[in-house]
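Entry 14: structure prediction run for Phage protein. Input pasted below.
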Amino acid sequence: MADEFKPFATYADVEKRWHTLTGPERDTAATLLEDATQIIMDTCPRWSQASERTLTAIACAMVIRKMSVGDERLGVTNAQQTAGSFSESFTYSNPMGDLYLTKAEKTRLGGGKARAFHLDMSGGNR
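Run finished. Output tokens:
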């Protein structure tokens, strides 16, 4: 029998790192934590060598990035406002609200380390 899937973090872990969540936000966070866990497992083959604390922190960071993007900013890559002589300009770091791993997070999970290998393209027929 296969092991039961267990996310690397809970919504309570997200709350410790961000703010108290509403009921609907808790449901969303729980689902996103499952997705974040699967992304880590699919993307970083050596994830099992990371500490439990590292896995929890990274899954939470992914979810907080996703949940920080409100519907009113979804898809916006740049916004500018001008009123008289005053102007503001914004560029959003995650305009599509994607769940993703940063380069630093991948490194923490054992990715990004160069490895040498040899590939015989001749098929062994010399």
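Notes: The chain has one domain: 11-108. Will compare against the previous run tomorrow.
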